Amino acid sequence: MPKTLDGIVVVDLTQNIAGPYCAQMLGDFGADVIKVEKPGLGDDVRRYAPAWHGEAAAFLTFNRNKRSVCADLKSAAGRDVVRRLVERADVFIHSLRPGDDRIFGLDYEQISQLNPRLVYCSVSGFGEKGPYKDYPGYDPVAQAYTGMMTSTGHPDSGPERISIPLIDMGAGMWAFIGVLAAIHERVTSGRGAKVGTSLLEVGVQWMTLLVSNFLATGRLPERCGSASPILAPYQAFKTADGMVFIAGGNDRLYAKLCAVLGLDALVDDSRFVTNAARCARREELAAIVEGATSSWRSDDLQAKLRAARVPCGPINTVRDVVEDPQVAALGLLRKIDGFRIPDFTMVDLPITLDGDKADVRMGPPRLGEHTDEVLRWAGYSGGDIERLKREKVIG
Questions:
Q1: 358 and 28 in contact (C-beta within 8 Å)?
Q2: Cβ-based burial of 205 (10 A; exposed 0-12, middle 13-18, buried ≥19)
Q3: Element (H, E) at 274
Q4: 9-206+336-343+363-390 has CATH 3.90.470.20 classification
Q5: End-to-end distance of the chain based on CA atoms, in angstroms?
Q6: Helix (H), strand (E) counts: the chain
Q7: Which fold has domain 234-315?
Q8: Is 329 helix (H, G, I), strand (E, B) or coil?
Q9: CA 174 to CA 159: how far, in whole Å?
Q10: Is 168 a catalytic residue?
Q11: Phi, psi of 10 (to 5 degrees)
């Protein structure tokens, strides 16, 4: 991939998933990302389960294309190390609790005086203002808070968490977008900007459709399992040997589906003649459709539906995805040769530029692996570095 951010230096003072994901994407596009971690411990995600050859798979997932520096923010000298890095950087990303940035002397007002061209980005749990700004935030907390858990699952289920860190990764994506916009604006203005996002804001944004439906009708979202509250038939259906998801998302596709299944009479059936009618009688329609699909083998049904241009797909496991030929053709799983973990494989960015994927210049770093070289870049002498090590400010 073209290194569109080559020459951009990013200081990444975040941990867990949201902020590190943003910084990793900046690194994937060519930026030099300096990850600042706690001496001895590092990013909390380094201790997440499971381990891959002794290292947390989650850390390895969100921290490629970075250099690691250890600096103790509890000491004045450690905070000075971060300020000196930020003074020379183009982008500063942090996930400090609102207010702690000011305590540490790392708030936008102070830092922008040192470096007016800096793009400053904060990622928080509940935002930087309002009555709950001090609340800590994690992805499942945000899923619960924003209504995702009460609109996911089956009608008789309790609160259900979406298994992936959807809001964390979404916050990283929105921070990435904001940072890119600020870098672009700097080209003409000559000045940096303050970018902010939070898990709460991203969670509410992801709920846009359900919020809009509620505002339009006053009705809370249904729990529909694999089905859709706004389209039908649009769910997983049983087959003779498993299940297939079928998306009959409009009248034209519904008619094609009925033709494949030998249910042509349903097309003009007054109970199901419009999408609104089909949604109102979703369970009744699903029972009829499943009565037909249950006699098909999954592969045969998918082949017939695809030939008719009806969207459908298997209900895959993660193993199925890893072994899938289309995933392989798109280069989504990529081995990194020469990395310290044998056969280390990562999930690549879901985007290409001129047909190329991201440039992986280095694998995820060991804790403090690049402290000395980065501090020399920041202007510290060899004697300064040794003194800071003796004082346990860096590691």
A1: yes
A2: middle
A3: none
A4: no
A5: 33
A6: 17, 13
A7: formyl-coa transferase, domain 3 (3.30.1540)
A8: helix
A9: 26
A10: yes
A11: -120, 130
Neighbour-count burial for 372-395, b at 16+ CB within 10 Å, e otherwise: bebbebbebeeebbeebbeeebbb
Distance CA 326, CA 180 (A): 30
Compute the chain's Rg from CA coordinates: 25
Amino acid letter, residue 75 = S
How far lies 391's CA from each of 234, 269, 369, 380, 395, in Å? 62, 80, 18, 15, 10
- Asked if residues 93 and 22 have their Cβ atoms less than 8 Å apart, the reply is yes
Distance CA 151, CA 154 (A): 9
Q: How far is it, in rounded angstroms, from Cα 119 to Cα 107?
A: 12
Burial group, residue 149, by CB count within 10 angstroms (0-12, 13-18, 19+): middle
For the chain, where do the domains classified as CATH 3.40.50.10540 start and end? 9-206+336-343+363-390
Q: Is 0.90 surpassed by the pTM of this model?
A: yes
**370 Cβ neighbours under 8 A, 6+ residues apart:** 34, 67, 68, 69
Q: Of these residues, 168, 268, 337, 356, which one is catalytic?
A: 168
The residues, ordered by sequence, that sit 6+ positions from 131 with a Cβ below 8 Å of its Cβ are none
Quickly tell me which residue has 């080559």 as its tokens: 6
What length is written for the chain? Answer: 395
The dihedral formed by the CA atoms of 4, 333, 298 and 229, expressed in degrees to the nearest 10: -50
pLDDT in tens, the chain (395 residues): 778 999 999 999 999 999 999 999 999 999 999 999 999 999 999 999 999 999 999 999 999 999 999 999 999 999 999 999 999 999 999 999 999 999 999 999 999 999 999 999 999 999 999 999 999 999 999 999 999 999 999 999 999 999 999 999 999 999 999 999 999 999 999 999 999 999 999 999 999 999 999 999 999 999 999 999 999 999 999 999 999 999 999 999 999 999 999 999 999 999 999 999 999 999 999 999 999 999 999 999 999 999 999 999 999 999 999 999 999 999 999 998 899 999 999 999 999 988 888 878 899 999 999 999 999 999 999 999 999 999 999 99
Residues of the chain with CATH 3.30.1540.10: 234-315
Tell me the one-letter amino acid at 370: H
